[in-house]
Amino acid sequence: MSKEPNTVYIGRKPTMNYVLAVITSFNSSDTKKVTLKARGRAITTAVDVAEIVNNRFMKDLNVGEITIGTEEMPPREGENRARMVSTIEITLTRG
Amino acid sequence: MSKEPNTVYIGRKPTMNYVLAVITSFNSSDTKKVTLKARGRAITTAVDVAEIVNNRFMKDLNVGEITIGTEEMPPREGENRARMVSTIEITLTRG
Staple partner for A87: which of A39, B26, B59, B81, CB 3.0–4.6 Å? Predict the structure, then answer.
């Protein structure tokens, strides 16, 4: 996953950090579209972020396309098999 | 979430249990559509199930509509506030 404008990468930080990042992204660049990307356990956080932003802070947003996929991750230390990890992309649009 | 035919509810069991349930559902009823439903931490498992069934076992499937939402859950013991929990529905179609 490479860096892209108007994309918020969801990881292990508290959910509200990402909620703030999404709101900031919409407001600072006056963009109409922000995409959340997450993999593995962070997928649940990504859905939480989309729902919280949408229901609590920016009621003019819509949840656009949601896509899921699989990525191959390098093996963990001490293992020798690549791991397959699920991914999600959630697009939020304004207007 | 009430019981519906061709719906697989994803919970805390091992991922492969649900993979098997989806495959069985497609085969036993000869249906064209199975919906996965999950909430909270099980959302990640639901995405894993969809990806594993799709990539490894039934390559003629397509991931159809994915919707997310929020449900109010009763408070945990000792707490007095309802909890908001994110939900996901993933539709798999064959054909």
Answer: A39
